[in-house]
Amino acid sequence: MTRLRWGILGCAAIADRAVIPAIHASETGELLAIASRSEDKARSKAEQFGIPKFYGSYEALLADPEIDAIYIPLPNHLHKEWTIAAAQAGKHVLCEKPLAMNAREAQEMVDGCKEAGVHLAEAFMYRHHPRIARVKEIVASGEIGELRGIRGVFTYNGTANKEDIRQVKEWGGGALYDVGVYPLSAARLIMGVEPEAVTVQALFSPEHDDVDMMASGLVEFPGNVALTFDCGMWASFRNELEIVGTDGTIVLKPSFVPSKETDDITIQVGDKVRREGPYGVDAYVAQSDQFARTVWGEEPPAYSPQDAVDNMRLIDACLASARTRQRIVL
């Protein structure tokens, strides 16, 4: 069986915890190489996960003719540089969210990959889970009535780790980049249209390099429907998405990082409550397989690369609103 041959740039925790196991478990992929700026670190990861090759530089991995696709879990400020380098080396790219530091960078990445003739995808694994398609189906069916609002929360307390790159401003740190992207992208996906305006309040912490450690906001969509959200890296853990209609609600809890045992949906219409699932699906595996089938031309992209640019435009507006304490019209 043909398999997509993967290489990974960097030794990030998300790769260890989720993406490496997902590629190993996928129907379509095999992980051939990992690179780090430290050859010893790359060797250690290769031995830990049974990866055949390791490299002491990112350039060396990109020069490997046996690699078809690159997964990039590097800090946010390095996404653009190494996505474009991978594209120029003829490699397809799965880049961690957020795709870039801003919409301008994201557009340059999309254009660079298009010019090179390679597939680019933003690694929003939750979007590939079947329950997301099911949520859209329920909303479209009218079962919960007319859509009135969406509520999304994603918070955790990461302050114990003083070396966390998510607390470095120049590297793209902050709650909106790290976890706010989830409810924002989910609302855009469920609504099927782009928002009109945003108003965001944030805690920019001097103790944490002035990144937004907590943010709360209102995202206005056409038709007088809004997303209310909060996200944070200095708060108790919460992870929930609620879609509210005139006749009922849909709740995903946990929403953006479900396990195979907790990936269910709760639907309430009037006094009647039902639960669908659990589906028992690993969203990271689903993401890996969908990416490969797109590369092979068997399926269209689940989400266009331009969608990532649109999501970055929304993040840009949220950050601008939080910094200026003003409503930003998109």
TrEMBL record:
> Where would you find the membrane-spanning parts of this chain?
none
Top-rank lineage group of the source organism? Bacteria
- Is this entry keyworded Transcription regulation? no
Q: SUPFAM superfamilies annotated for this entry?
A: Glyceraldehyde-3-phosphate dehydrogenase-like, C-terminal domain (SSF55347), NAD(P)-binding Rossmann-fold domains (SSF51735)
- Using the record's annotation, list all stretches that form the Gfo/Idh/MocA-like oxidoreductase N-terminal domain: 4-121
| Keyword terms | Oxidoreductase
The record places domain GFO/IDH/MocA-like oxidoreductase at: 133-251
| One Pfam short name | GFO_IDH_MocA_C3
Question: Which InterPro entries does the record match to this protein?
Answer: Gfo/Idh/MocA-like_OxRdtase_N (IPR000683), Gfo/Idh/MocA_domain (IPR050984), GFO_IDH_MocA-like_dom (IPR055170), NAD(P)-bd_dom_sf (IPR036291)
The Swiss-Prot or TrEMBL record describes its family as follows: Belongs to the Gfo/Idh/MocA family.
Protein name listed in UniProt: Gfo/Idh/MocA family oxidoreductase
